[in-house]
Amino acid sequence: MDMTKVQSMQINTAARDLDLSKKRKKSLSLSINCILILLLIVALIISICTGRYSIPIPQLINIILGKLFGIKVSWPPTVETVLFNVRLPRIIVAIMVGSSLATAGSTYQGLFKNPMVSPDILGATAGAGFGAAVGILCSLSSNEIQISAFVFGIAAVSLSYSLSKIIGRKSNVTLILVLTGMVVQSMFTAFISITKYVADPESKLPAITFWLMGGLNTSTWKDVTVMIIPLIIASVPLFLLRYKINVLSFGDEEAQAMGVDTNKIRIIIIICSTLLTASAVSVCGMVGWVGLIIPHIARIITGPNYKKLLPASFLIGGTYLLLIDDIARSLFVTEIPLGILTSIIGAPFFLFLLIRGKNKEVV
After folding, report:
1. Could you tell me the CATH superfamily of domain 43-68+88-362?
2. Cβ-contact 156, 172 below 8 angstroms
3. 93: left (phi > 0), else alpha (psi -120 to 50), else beta?
4. Helix (H, G, I), strand (E, B) or coil at 43
5. Where are the alpha helices (DSSP H) in the chain?
6. Cα-flanking dihedrals φ and ψ of residue 50, to 5°?
7. Could you give the CA distance from residue 95 to residue 315 in angstroms, rounded to a whole number?
8. Where are the domains of the chain?
9. Residues 168/140, Cβ–Cβ less than 8 Å
10. pLDDT (0 to 100) of residue 282
11. What pLDDT is recorded for position 362?
12. What is the C-alpha separation between 346 and 217, in angstroms, rounded?
């Protein structure tokens, strides 16, 4: 009887410890998300105030209070124009593009079980770049160029997926998908080169080259509308299915044994990630490294669990690109293309992560 009581007490103690551990983990996850949201808000305020036309914080508060409570206007009209017509749309687009690329990169890394995967793995970036290059070559409007980039980005991924289904019916689906994605990406990169080669070197070629380097200098409220629709449509399913990405990372056989329809989940993830990548590239051009390094940073902070990793990637991605854009438009008199800055910062940081991982293995 005493042994039964002891065992019962041990079971109850273990259950309490487990429940306490879950509560601590949940509390820690909530704290991390709150900190990341706070950092994003700080970055947002810094971005609003900094630039060639600086806006002091007291003046910013005055404008906000004036707009919210109808206080009499006491600021120059130029400040209001810069804030609402130039800076705010650019800031919002930067946050959405960074969040989109980071979320897409994070989900692709889980899908392909490889931390070296980025959002352009299936050719979405190269396809969108080619679509934009063709649009510029044909003298289309800015809206038509965005549509062309978006359509070709979707088409590139569709081609990768279709080829993988034709080639690898009973083979390793993930490996075949990666290989076909590399082929399609290389093909569309070649198409971009051909487009640049036939472009007018005086006008069209510089425009194509500058667009491909990435930038947010032409962002408007229309771009915010263009970005927010695919961002919501694609992000909601990924966040709802993020626990299943954990299961997929164990492998198809293990996932199917747990009752997960791997083919269906894989298609949903590819569609949503492609929407995020294609919409981001169509608005700001080819901005590299964001979808590769941000998930690594989020993984260091939260661990590999996608329930925590995906929201962290979303928030960190938005903050990161927002700060990079601040540097791009403030460091020199001429604005630096985003793609150049993200490569300069991203490549050494990724090398640091590789060295860090190697040292851990040695230890």
Report:
1. ABC transporter involved in vitamin B12 uptake, BtuC (1.10.3470.10)
2. no
3. alpha
4. helix
5. 2-49, 57-69, 77-81, 88-111, 124-137, 142-167, 173-198, 204-212, 221-240, 242-248, 252-257, 262-284, 290-302, 306-330, 338-362
6. -95, 155
7. 9
8. 43-68+88-362
9. no
10. 92
11. 43
12. 21
Element (H, E) at 347: helix 338-362
Instruction: Please give the model's pTM, rounded to 2 decimal places.
Output: 0.88
Contact 279, 227 (CB under 8 A): yes
CB-based contact 90:216 (threshold 8 Å): yes
- With a CB cutoff of 8 Å and minimum separation 6, the contacts of 59 are 75, 79
Residue type, position 186, single letter:
S
| Helix ranges (DSSP H) in 303-337 | 306-330
* 148 contacts 208 by C-beta, under 8 angstroms: no
Structure tokens at 31: 């704290």
212 contacts: CB under 8 Å, gap ≥ 6:
129, 132, 133, 192, 285, 286, 339
**For the chain, how big is the Rg over CA atoms in Å?**
23
In 68-114, where do the E strands start and end? none
- pLDDT of 23 reads 61
3-state secondary structure of 220: coil
Two tokens, residue 289 = 């490294």
The pair of structure tokens assigned to 355 is 């060295």
Q: How far apart are CA 201 and CA 19, in angstroms?
A: 67
Tell me, what amino acid is at 88? L
Regions of the chain where pLDDT drops below 50: 1, 17, 361-363
Structure tokens at 317: 């991605």
**Identity (one letter) of the amino acid at 1?**
M
> Which residues, other chains included, contact 242 with Cβ-Cβ below 8 Å and sequence gap of 6+?
306, 307, 309, 310
